[in-house]
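Q: I have 586 residues here and want to know how they pack in 3D. Can you give me a structure?
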Amino acid sequence: MFTMFKRVRIGRLFFGSFAAFIAVLLLVTSWISYSLTSRELASNTANYQQDLLNELNKRLVIQLNSIEQMSLAASRNIDIIEYDPLESDLFERKRRKQDLESLLASITYSTTMVQSIYLYTERPFLPDSQGPIRVYTLQKVREEDWFPDIQNNDSAWIKERTIQTNKGPLNVIGYARKLYNNSGIYYGMLMLNVKSSEIQNLIRGETEGRSRLLFDASGRKIASIGDQSLQVDELDKLKVLNAKSGSTHLSAKQQSDSLLVWSKSPSNWMLVEVTPWKNIVGGSIRLALILLTVGLSAIIIGFFVTFFISRQFTKPIKLLLNFMSKLPERGFVTDLPQDYTNEFGNLFNGYRKQMERIEELLDSLKAQHKRQREAEIQALQAMINPHFLYNTLDQLNWLAIDSGQDKISKILSLMGKMFRIGLSNGETLIPIADEITHVECYLQIQQIRWGDRLSFCIHIDESARELFIPRLTLQPFIENAIIHGFHGRKKGELQVSVQLINQDIQFKIWDDGVGLRPDWNQPKVRKTGGYGVRNVKERIEAYFGLPYGVRMSSSKGNGTLVMVLLPQIQYKEQVEEQYYVENTHH
């Protein structure tokens, strides 16, 4: 049997190792598939974007060059017109002013890209306020934030900015050109404001949802479209974009990886497209996940099939081993399966017959042990009544000398109740309500002696009154508190509480007496004091065992606290069944 079980376990171990190897192989295959396909997708995407950017760059350069040519032509014509605001001939000065305005306005009317033209000169004039021309003093150029871009150049593209128009704010991209006369003297500046939307349309082309950037020959960003968070830093790009065109996988520190594709025109204008790497390799990830899912599904299905087949062999063996490892209980062998007709059926039948013979022997031992323990418990129970009677009669003798017949009558009445409960027709277990009545009678007798100097209170959970407790469990602790705890004191206080805790019940007895002596737990030479406590402890140990029992604690000035922990007993037979079953097993 064990050889067969061992073979099955070896088979399972082999399959588990094989499955683990296949899983690792599947992971490696999925990773290789992802790496190859993602690399191929990135290459195809880069080639496609490269062709598209080259085409867009050509169109863009044509438009930008046309703007530059317009600016150059306008600068020469302005020089030809030779407008002089100090001209003495008013008619000639007005004519040349009109010619200059018409020249500049014709540029804006000739193309939709140019929104307006700014002219900066030493002696500005007032143009038509509704027209596209604005004339400013040359000194104002130095106040513009874009002046550093053209300060050392004759012409330059100015990055996107916002200007005020008759229709409100407008984003424009400027092209600035310095004006020189025939003698080479710098006398003004011409600024063509190109609509940003027109440049962005050229960059966008016929595609949507792309992130692209336009840089001039000096590497300054002029315009952009798309997700700004994907646009890389200029310095980082300039380190990478050193070829006419190309692509690279860019790993950014503070954002996700990107594919960078760029195209350079002959005039060194650069158009760059940035694509999130996750958008490119998304198909590769899905393919790898499909392969991984299919492979893992096959492994899981194979595992369950193997598990089902091996279970047909291991289930009866495990079942028999489980029965053999646990402590047998009465009738438990009937739980063994009886529908096996193979060698497992023979094993079960043989074990069942063996257990039946063991059960007969256990029944015999249990009956013998029960009779023995009954005799021991009854002997312990009978020993406490004479002890209690002795102490009570001693108190009666003292009261008969010191008090009248009324008190003696009351004492005798209380004692009658106590003896009736104490005897309880020979029962070893009594309701907690009777035990508490016995305690109250004893305390009332003591209160006749002490008077107002003795105070006591009893708190009991009402749901605990009908539960059972070994007879005379609490009284010895009450007696110790009064005889020993209050010895030599003028007054005393005593509290008794009964509380249910989960499946147990806890009794607390507290007094404010002198407390326990250091040797309180040592055997006494005299037979008074401590005898009843030992009796209670032995009975609880005989009935229930651990964790139930008595705990006593004392501290100077705080009296003594006794805690008795017992199980909740609903009916008297419960104790006998529980006690004898547990002790028989042990």
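Q: Anything worth noting?
A: The first strand starts at residue 114 and ends at 121. The domain at 12-277 is CATH 3.30.450.20 (Beta-Lactamase).
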